[in-house]
Amino acid sequence: MSTCPIDSRAIRPIRFVAGQCHMLDQRLLPAEEVWHTYATYQEIARAISTMVVRGAPAIGVAAAIGAWFGARDIETESSWEFYQEFEKVCAVLVATRPTAVNLSWALERMKHFAQSNLDRSILELKIGLEFEALAITQEDEKANQKLGQHGEPLLADGARVLTHCNAGALATAGYGTALGVIRAAVEAGKKISVIADETRPILQGARLTAWELQKDNIPVTLICDNMAGYLMSLGEVDCVIVGADRIAANGDVANKIGTYTVAVLAKEHNIPFYVAAPVSTIDLSLDAGSQIPIEERDGREITHLKDLQLAPEGISVRNPAFDITPHCLVTAIITEHGIVNGDYLAGLKRIVKQH
Amino acid sequence: MSTCPIDSRAIRPIRFVAGQCHMLDQRLLPAEEVWHTYATYQEIARAISTMVVRGAPAIGVAAAIGAWFGARDIETESSWEFYQEFEKVCAVLVATRPTAVNLSWALERMKHFAQSNLDRSILELKIGLEFEALAITQEDEKANQKLGQHGEPLLADGARVLTHCNAGALATAGYGTALGVIRAAVEAGKKISVIADETRPILQGARLTAWELQKDNIPVTLICDNMAGYLMSLGEVDCVIVGADRIAANGDVANKIGTYTVAVLAKEHNIPFYVAAPVSTIDLSLDAGSQIPIEERDGREITHLKDLQLAPEGISVRNPAFDITPHCLVTAIITEHGIVNGDYLAGLKRIVKQH
Fold first, then answer.
1. Cα angle for residues B65, B66, B68 (degrees, 5° grid)
2. Most exposed of A158, A232, A280, B334 (fewest Cβ within 10 Å)?
3. Does the annotation mark A287 as catalytic?
4. In what order do the strands lie in the sheet with B282-283?
């Protein structure tokens, strides 16, 4: 189907209603706004791995909904058997993409809910899991709004903010992380303009960030990734805000490929480099960014654009989908529980415990 | 026409024979190898501005040939009138693209030849200008071979060399500048592998560098521009070599947009950053890179790929085609007269005077 069944002006790429999940196909934006309807966990798994939905918080939300679809369809009256089957469902979902920790975070939360309620009837368990998936969805958008309020004082009136990839409403349940901070600054009455890196190879900046900021009437200028340095050297960038796919205990940040380069450029030009992410992105189990698995995707994403051939046949390609920005390049990490900077090890631990 | 009329295994994008100029259409590579035949200066001017031919040395060569076409077609017996008309031809050609100085360098050389021979008959003048255009073409390829020999000792056996854009045979009369150094190292028996930035928006790296290195059996891996930093952080890049469109007296380098970013990344990772360019690229009339005019091209190059729409309608775009790398980020400049490093002001002056 090609229209979203729920009327709302706010951009929400995942709508979870009446036992179905409606998802905006982000691969087709901005040319087409196509919504798909899913009702099984296998469909959700495929939507995540093929990037119908993308963005760390959004794939966490999608996975939670997928887990509920899986739970709902388990046919057993044995709690033990139910949990065994539910773990299998979660294992399929968690394997769809390796880098963003929000995926496993959401699934762990669903499993924890199930495990804590195994004394309930299967019917109650299934209903409870539906509410848990709904809660994950709603909490994500609320977390982003809070994160935006914490972060917006960092943006001066008139600020020209560079962002990479899409850490917007489309990357979350709604409102966005990096773009959430920008939205909050605009709502606070500040004049903010955005410079959006197009973000090869998937072009999330050109296709998604430009699309959603244009929709919200926030001024946005599109550039190729390789132009950010030059604009910084001309004094045309006041700060950088990006999202994150996983943050290690020491503050190292995995985010969309190219983020590290932007961070190095920001350091060279003494420009603040902010990371905006919900607490669900923080992975205290990993000491440092070097331990974060980096997904390597199909080279065809680089050599072709749809059916258009951009490089010679048979050429060798590297296509890491993410990179690691060491914490020393990060000015501050903005979360829904406040801002962390300086001593990330202590600060992130404190903030996760508040959660 | 779609085949080159001159048989040769060497890649030479501009063939100047029998009063005609055959040009490989670089916009269509690697999918198609289409050759066009031109015989007027207006056709050459259009080929330069629409990027049928690109690359600083190559557009210098093309402009020289165009200037001769213009000269040949001037109908007068008055030397004074001839020179007036010839200056008009050169003015059209020099206006096609602003950043690469090789364009004006070649045209100045053609004008200087004409001016120095105004005592000759118009017939002799026209024949002389044809030989001058031929000389510019042949000297460019020879300069690149010499430049390659000067530069190749900088590449260790086994070196993994990152390059940006295409500073190859396709960007010159033949052999290439940055890729000339790589070819010379390979000819010297070294095992060299190349990492090619795809170089948005025109994708000269994906379409041209990958194509010509593959043709020469030099191992090449294609990446998106935003991946270079990550590969450097993993220790997978030993040095960087790029070409140049104009070098100011102080050693600041104008080159394809994104070069500056690569230079900042190289500095951050203590990786040598080399610029390879013929002396015709050096512009001693400009003190510093900030004086070099930077061409801003049509935003459609970023928002569309052929007919494919990559960004929302009406989005604001910046599209600077070049950037400036300050000399402090340049490890050495490799020319056909030797290598300059350290004191660029003195070194470049010395090398230009040798010319």
1. 65
2. A158
3. no
4. B282-283, B246-248, B253-256, B322-325
Residue from the list B199, B214, B264 with its beta carbon closest to the beta carbon of A265: B264
Residues in chain A: 355
C-alpha–C-alpha distance, residues A85 and A88, integer Å: 5
* Tokens representing residue A279 in the block: 């607490």
Q: Is A48 left (phi over 0), alpha (psi -120 to 50) or beta?
A: alpha
Mean pLDDT, chain A cut into blocks of 10 residues (355 residues total): 54 93 96 96 98 96 98 96 98 96 96 96 96 96 97 98 98 97 98 98 98 97 98 98 98 98 98 97 97 97 95 97 98 98 96 83
- Name the residue facing A310 among B207, B257, B268 (closest C-beta): B207
CATH number given to A2-145? 1.20.120.420
Contact B230/A315, CB-based, under 8 Å? no
Model ipTM value:
0.94
pTM (predicted TM-score): 0.95
Q: How many residues does chain B have?
A: 355
The CATH 3.40.50.10470 domain(s) of chain A lie at: 148-353
Fold for the domain defined by A148-353? Rossmann fold (3.40.50)
Would you say A42 and A11 are in contact if contact means Cβ atoms under 8 Å apart? no
In chain A, residues with a C-beta closer than 8 Å to the C-beta of B257 are 224, 226-227, 230
